[in-house]
Amino acid sequence: MTEISWLAVPDDASAHEGVRKLWQKAGANLGFVPNVFRAQALNGEQFLAWWAYFNLLVNKDGFLSPADREMLAVVVSGANRCVYCEVSHGAALRGLLDDPTRADVIAVNWRHARLGERETAMCAYAEKLTLNPADMTPADLGTLRTVGLDDHQILELVQVVGMFNLTNRVSSALGFVPNAEYHAQHR
């Protein structure tokens, strides 16, 4: 098996019972277990707590569309140069947009993707919060409101950006390797 983390990765026998159940569910739904699920499983309870919040923000119905959340994920991951998240969430964005070229352009440089005013404002906000969090001001929220986002959507946007900054840092710090399956998805 290819090394997927710079730390030890538990196997089926040593993984937390709840983690094993999540692996089984992911395998049934996706056809593979994401390497991030295996790599973070070393501390089972912590992984499951992270997954519960991540799943709530990214995979459940919310105030932003699934495509909006994945777009934010790839913008943040690109700014952070996180290989795992850029590849895995780039694949998800390709599927949600049903336009692999547009999704790839967003992932490489969202400014070249010919986004609408709303999406442009969201991407600019996500990039600024990622790269210069100390520079955030109330005016940044005003820009989001101007393009039609309400406070619920803004809060969710900030939470998604925060989650991906956390996840990017964990993935990059520990050398997580994306599954090969992601590279071919939705092409």
Question: Can you give me a brief rundown of this structure?
Answer:
The protein is mostly helical. It has ten helices and no strands. Helix 4 (66-80) packs parallel to helix 7 (117-131), helix 4 (66-80) packs across helix 9 (151-173) and helix 7 (117-131) runs antiparallel to helix 8.
Walk me through the structure.
InterPro entries: AhpD-like, AhpD_core, CMD-like, Uncharacterised_peroxidase-rel. The chain is an all-alpha fold and 187 residues long. It folds into two domains: 17-59, Single alpha-helices involved in coiled-coils or other helix-helix interfaces, CATH 1.20.5.810; 66-173, Up-down Bundle (AhpD-like). It contains ten helices and no strands. It has helices at residues 17-30, 35-39, 44-58, 66-80, 83-97, 100-109, 117-131, 138-146, 151-173, 180-184.
Give the topology.
Blueprint lengths: L16 H14 L4 H5 L4 H15 L7 H15 L2 H15 L2 H10 L7 H15 L6 H9 L4 H23 L6 H5 L3
The helix count comes to: 10
Distance between the termini: 26 Å
- What's the level 1 CATH class of the largest domain? Mainly Alpha
Order of helices and strands: HHHHHHHHHH
Low-confidence stretches: none
* Largest sheet data: none
Gyration radius (Cα, Å) is: 17 Å
Structural class label: mainly alpha
Strand content: under 5%
The global form is: globular
CATH architecture of the largest domain: Up-down Bundle
How many structural domains can be distinguished in the coordinates?
2
- CATH topology description of the largest domain: AhpD-like
Instruction: Please give the number of β-strands.
Output: 0
Domain Carboxymuconolactone decarboxylase-like: 46-127
Pfam family, one: CMD
GO molecular function: peroxiredoxin activity
InterPro entries: AhpD-like (IPR029032), AhpD_core (IPR004675), CMD-like (IPR003779), Uncharacterised_peroxidase-rel (IPR010195)
